[in-house]
Amino acid sequence: MKIFWITDSETFYPLKGKAYLGKEGKQPEKNLGQKVVMELSAPYNYTNRNITTDNFFTSLQLAVALRANGLTLVETLRKNKPFIPNEFLPSRQRHVHSAVFGFQKKITLVSHVPKQGNAVILLSTMHHDKAVDLEQMGKPEINLYYNKTKGGVDSLDQLVHAYMSKRHTVRWPLSYFFNLLDVAGVASFVIWTLQNPLWKENKKHKRRLFLEEMSEQLVIPQIQRRVGAGRVHKSALLSAELCGVTAPASVPVPSQQEEEETAKKKKCVLCGKKKDRKSKQTCNECKRPVCNEHSRAKRICMECQ
């Protein structure tokens, strides 16, 4: 499954997602990248924000459409785009660390040569000059800005895979739900750290500690319901106490002997010697171990019945 995300470039906060549903109808999909960017960025139209994309989404039409909606665009280009002049394409005749700029209708095109025979082509509606950074071996400002803001979605994907709740399943809705839980965990951690910047500031694994505490707080209401419902196994009560939940005095606690009897599997007294059939359940009348074959309604063995 593929999910397209738009994220904040600094905090990697997931803003909006769109599931890829495959080809709709019999017609081949056209301009998928542009449609995805326009849909995900729609809530931020006319806010003067910038959108950074990679070359999968890039097109000249996308830059024009976003500018009409009050947004700027910085993106890399594939070399096969028909609107790229020949002077911008890779060539062994171009000098290393050189850059070529092109300007048209508030759209800037730049081609930078990081090494011999190679060229990185970028398009921007945010930059409108030939600014380069001499300390970075003549890299254009467009290239530096792209490198600074390009890692939002990749970083979100990396954070999600660091601590995953996903389990093996053949049901795609369940797998999709697991992914939503993981993304929600990243989003809640970003909000929490922004509101509490001093929280465990000396810990290197703050996110793991946050997920542990958040998970405990989410399951505490369920633990309280189970503990207060009635007879509970002693190990369950100990686990509940670790989460700070104590059982009411009215809840009966099984004795150690009762727990041992129920925990061990014993051979059924009604099965023959050739059958080594063991069971945890006992007859409610004679308290002897009995298997499912030799028990009847209300867990009473055949002899007692």
UniProtKB/TrEMBL annotation:
Q: Write the record's keywords in alphabetical order, separated by commas.
A: Membrane, Transmembrane, Transmembrane helix
Q: Does the keyword Transmembrane apply?
A: yes
Record-annotated membrane-spanning stretches: 174-194
PiggyBac transposable element-derived protein domain boundaries: 2-186
Q: Which Pfam families match?
A: DDE_Tnp_1_7
Entry keyword annotation includes Membrane: yes
Q: Which InterPro entries does this chain map to?
A: PGBD
The record's listing under PANTHER family reads: DUAL SPECIFICITY PHOSPHATASE 26, PIGGYBAC TRANSPOSABLE ELEMENT-DERIVED PROTEIN 4
Report the protein name in the record. Answer: PiggyBac transposable element-derived protein 4
